[in-house]
Design a protein that fits this description.
The protein is of the alpha/beta class. Among the domains are: about 1-55, 434 Repressor (Amino-terminal Domain) (Orthogonal Bundle), CATH 1.10.260; about 155-290, Rossmann fold (3-Layer(aba) Sandwich), CATH 3.40.50.2300. It contains eleven helices and 13 strands. It has helices at about 5-10, 15-20, 30-45, 70-75, 80-90, 125-130, 155-170, 190-205, 220-230, 245-255, 290-305, and strands at about 60-65, 95-100, 115-120, 135-140, 150-155, 175-180, 190, 210-215, 240, 265-270, 285, 315, 320. Strands 6, 7, 8, 9, 10, 11 and 13 form a seven-stranded mixed sheet that branches. It has a six-stranded parallel sheet with strand order 2-1-3-4-5-12, with helices on one face. A hairpin with a 5-residue loop joins strand 6 and strand 7 (about 190). The radius of gyration is 21 Å and the shape is globular.
Length: about 325
C-alpha cells in the first residue's frame, strides 16, 4: 500500500507538503503546479486515506463521476481546478466522497446520498446516473434540466466580451481555434464559443470562414493549426482561442515563424490558468471562476439533499476578461 513517503518521493516534495495538500490545508502556500504533482502522484500510486486520517463522523456519502482521464486533466487544468475545489468543499463539510465509474451499479456502491458529475457525458453515462435515483449535480454540463441540477459557465457573454475587446482594438481579421464537443447521444457539435464567435462576426460583417480552425483542446493542435493558418495568403491579425492550452501552442508556432505577439498577432485565451500570467508576453484571457464552480456544485447538492427539493436549479457563473500583454491595437 502506498504511503505519504512514496507520494513525496514521486512528486519531489516533502512529506509534510503531501500531507497538507491531501488534507486541503488552506494555510499551505504552494503553487497549483505543486498541488497537481501531489494529486497526480497519489492517483498514480492508488493512495487511499487511512481510517485514522478520516473524521470519526461523516455527514454523508457523495459519489463523484468524472468524464475525463487523468491525462486530459493534466493537459488542461480547468477540470483539475474544479475538482480540487469541490473535493476541498466536501471535506470541509464533513462529507465522505468516492469515485463512480461506468462499471458501477446501484447495488455495487455503498450508501449514496448524492452525486456530482464533472465534464461532458454520453447518453449511457447519463442513464447510469439516473439509475442511481439520487440527487445529482452536473458541473460544466446541463444534459437534462428536468432531472439534474447544473453549474455552468456563461460562454455567451464570455465570448462576446473577448470579441468586443479585440474589435475595440481595431481588429477585423479575427481568427478562432477551438475543438469539437460531443452531446449525450454521441453526436458531435460546435463548441458554443465557436457558435457565438461566428454569429458575432457575421453580425459585424467581418466573418471569414478561413480564419476558423478546429482541432483538439491542447498545445499540440494549437501549434499545428496556427502554423497552417499563418501559411495562408490572408492572415488574421488577432486570435480568440478556446482555452489557454491552445494558446500555449500558438505562442510556440508564432515564435518559430517570427510572428511577434502582440505586434503582429494579438491572442486572447480562455480559462486563465495559473501559468497564463507567466507566458511571454503574459496572456490576455477570460478568467473562469473554477473554485466558485466547484463550491457551488457542493452547495447546490447538499441543499437539494437537505430540502428534498423537486424542482431543478441551474447556476450560471459569469467570467472576467483579464487584460495582460498579448493583445494590442491592430497594426496599420
Amino acid at each position: 500500500m502506498a504511503t505519504i513517503k512514496d507520494i513525496a518521493y514521486l512528486a519531489q516534495v516533502s512529506m509534510a507538503t503531501v500531507s497538507r495538500v491531501l488534507n486541503y490545508d488552506e494555510t499551505l502556500n504552494v503553487t497549483p503546479e505543486t498541488r497537481k504533482r501531489v494529486f497526480e502522484a497519489a492517483e498514480e500510486l492508488n493512495y487511499v486515506i487511512s481510517s485514522k486520517q478520516k473524521k470519526a463522523k461523516k455527514k454523508g456519502n457523495i459519489g463523484l463521476y468524472y468524464s475525463y482521464s487523468l491525462e486530459e486533466e493534466l493537459v488542461d487544468t480547468y477540470y483539475l481546478s474544479i475538482r480540487v475545489a469541490l473535493e476541498k468543499k466536501l471535506k470541509r463539510m464533513g462529507m465522505d466522497y468516492f469515485k463512480i465509474t461506468k462499471d458501477d451499479t446501484k447495488r455495487s456502491l455503498p450508501k449514496l446520498d448524492g452525486i456530482i458529475c464533472l465534464g461532458t457525458f454520453k447518453k449511457a453515462e447519463i442513464e447510469l446516473i439516473k439509475s442511481f435515483d439520487k440527487p445529482s449535480v452536473f458541473v460544466d454540463a446541463n444534459p437534462d434540466e428536468d432531472t439534474f441540477d447544473a453549474v455552468v459557465i456563461n460562454f455567451n457573454s464570455a465570448t462576446k466580451n473577448a470579441l468586443n475587446y479585440l474589435v475595440d482594438l481595431g481588429h477585423e481579421k479575427i481568427g478562432f481555434i477551438g475543438g469539437i464537443e460531443t452531446d449525450m447521444f454521441g453526436n458531435r457539435f460546435k463548441d458554443l464559443r465557436q457558435d457565438v464567435f461566428e454569429a458575432y462576426l457575421k453580425e459585424k460583417g467581418i466573418f471569414k470562414e478561413q480564419f476558423v480552425k478546429i482541432g483538439g483542446y491542447n498545445p499540440k493542435d494549437g501549434y499545428q493549426i496556427l502554423k497552417e493558418m499563418l501559411s495562408q495568403d490572408e492572415k488574421p491579425t488577432a486570435l480568440f482561442v478556446a482555452n489557454d492550452s491552445i494558446a500555449i501552442g500558438c505562442y510556440k508556432a508564432a515564435y518559430e515563424l517570427g510572428v511577434e505577439i502582440p505586434k503582429d498577432l494579438s491572442i486572447v485565451g480562455f480559462n486563465d490558468v495559473s501559468s497564463a500570467q507567466y507566458m511571454v508576453p503574459p496572456l490576455t484571457t477570460v478568467k473562469l471562476y473554477t473554485e466558485i464552480m466547484g463550491e457551488s456544485a457542493v452547495d447546490l447538492l447538499l441543499e437539494r439533499i437537505a430540502t428534498k427539493r423537486g424542482i431543478c436549479k441551474k447556476i450560471t457563473i459569469h467570467t472576467k476578461l483579464i487584460e495582460r500583454d498579448s493583445a494590442t491595437t491592430v497594426k496599420k
